[in-house]
Amino acid sequence: MKRMPRHTLWISIAGVLAVSAYAALAAVQILVLNPLAAAPRMTLEEIRVEMAAANESLGHQTVFFVLGIGVALAVGVAVVSMIAKAPPIVPGMTFLALLMCGVVGYFAASFTAGMGLADTFGISGADYSPWALPLYGVSAGAAIVVIVGGIAMATRNRTSTAPA
Predict the structure, then answer these.
(1) What percentage of the chain has pLDDT greater than the value 90?
(2) Quick check: 129 and 33 in contact, CB under 8 A?
(3) pLDDT tens-digit series, residues 73-112
(4) How much is the pTM?
(5) Which superkingdom does the taxonomy of this entry point to (predicted)?
(6) Are 91 and 157 in contact (CB under 8 A)?
(7) Measured distance CA(75)–CA(67) in Å, rounded
(8) Cβ(20)–Cβ(73) below 8 Å
(9) How far apart are CA 112 and CA 62, in angstroms?
(10) Which stretches within 1-132 are classed as H helix?
């Protein structure tokens, strides 16, 4: 019977935590930090009241649903990796790919809130809070590691299978 590599367990735990932390920061950015930065002289409650009066909202359900997809995928990757006793590279690269794609989830989750802020306050729907930058940075860093890791694995496999 094949044993699960110990590193697979730890990478799975770290990967789920990393994706969950990314989703949590994205939710706080969308629902709290960005609205406060977009309407700096108002409290969060005043922003919500003003948006409700304009028949707009931050779209809490959409934010949690879209960001929850990433967390659910991370848990799925961890479970499948542990059940399949996958080598550590499999969950590692998959979690990096999830973090890389996190920026797409962040954009999709923030769209309703951004448009609601834009329509209510006559501003653009862009990020006003600088706390979106760490999300972009993590996704970019993950993309670089996936690309470099893929190249390294391809060249390592090519040199190890070359005839002597």
Answers:
(1) 88
(2) yes
(3) 999 999 999 999 999 999 999 999 999 999 999 999 999 9
(4) 0.91
(5) Bacteria
(6) no
(7) 13
(8) no
(9) 8
(10) 6-28, 34-38, 44-53, 60-83, 89-121
